[in-house]
């Protein structure tokens, strides 16, 4: 299980999880190959790699040849995170969810909803610093791709509750 603060950090960029999944599936990944496989600009990739290096999960391969063709490898602390990223990416692929199907807050919301029905206000409190607009858009996106569902609580006035579909539970289990 990945820590909640690490999960929030990981989803801060759409590139962290796929990049770490690629790094976990190979012994070392070269800059040019990463840029091509992720379809990311060189300047964006440089920033993402710098952030992962500062976090301590990735490092330049010290034994790799030419400095203009850098290779990156996982650190010891990055290996379990990369394994987690591989599981999540494999489940996303199995569910037919491409990179653009899920937004920044989708994975944290899925992790909070696992096996529970919750109110919007509870989710907002648990996912601080998420804004109400971001949470609303994320829930709509999860409803649209069939990962979450909504029902009304039987009270007056009725309040919406959010929970996971079977597909959503599959992805939430991959995050454990």
Would you kindly provide a written description of the structure presented here, covering whatever features stand out?
This protein has two domains: 4-94, Arc Repressor Mutant, subunit A; 101-174, Orthogonal Bundle (Arc Repressor Mutant, subunit A), CATH 1.10.10. It is of the alpha+beta class and 176 residues long. Helix content is 53%, strand content 13%. It has nine helices and six strands. The chain has helices at 4-10, 16-25, 31-38, 42-55, 78-94, 106-113, 120-126, 132-144, 166-174; strands at 29-30, 58-60, 71-74, 118-119, 148-153, 159-164. It has a three-stranded antiparallel sheet with strand order 1-3-2. Strands 4-6-5 form a three-stranded antiparallel sheet.
The CATH topology label of the largest domain is Arc Repressor Mutant, subunit A
Named at the architecture level, the CATH assignment of the largest domain is: Orthogonal Bundle
Order of helices and strands: HHEHHEEHHEHHEEH
Biggest β-sheet strands, sense, barrel: 3 strands, antiparallel
According to CATH, the homologous superfamily of the largest domain is Winged helix-like DNA-binding domain superfamily/Winged helix DNA-binding domain
Question: CA-to-CA gap between the ends?
Answer: 5 Å
Helix content: 40-55%
Relative strand content:
5-15%
Query: DSSP helix count?
Result: 9
DSSP strand tally: 6
């Amino acid at each position: 299980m990945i820590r909640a603060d690490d999960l929030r950090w990981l989803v801060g960029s759409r590139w962290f999880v796929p990049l770490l999944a690629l790094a976990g599936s190979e012994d070392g990944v070269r800059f040019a190959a990463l840029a091509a496989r992720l379809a990311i600009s060189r300047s964006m990739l440089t920033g993402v790699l710098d952030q992962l290096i500062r976090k301590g999960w990735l490092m330049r391969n010290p034994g790799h040849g030419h400095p203009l063709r850098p290779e990156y490898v996982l650190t010891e602390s990055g290996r379990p995170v990369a394994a987690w990223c591989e599981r999540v990416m494999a489940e996303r692929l199995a569910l037919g969810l491409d990179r653009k199907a899920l937004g920044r807050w989708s994975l944290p919301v899925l992790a909070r909803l696992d096996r529970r029905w919750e109110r919007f206000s509870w989710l907002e409190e648990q996912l601080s610093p998420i804004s109400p607009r971001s949470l609303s858009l994320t829930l709509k996106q999860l409803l649209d791709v069939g990962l979450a569902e909504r029902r009304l609580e039987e009270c007056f006035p009725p309040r919406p509750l959010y929970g996971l579909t079977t597909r959503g539970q599959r992805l939430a289990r991959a995050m454990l």
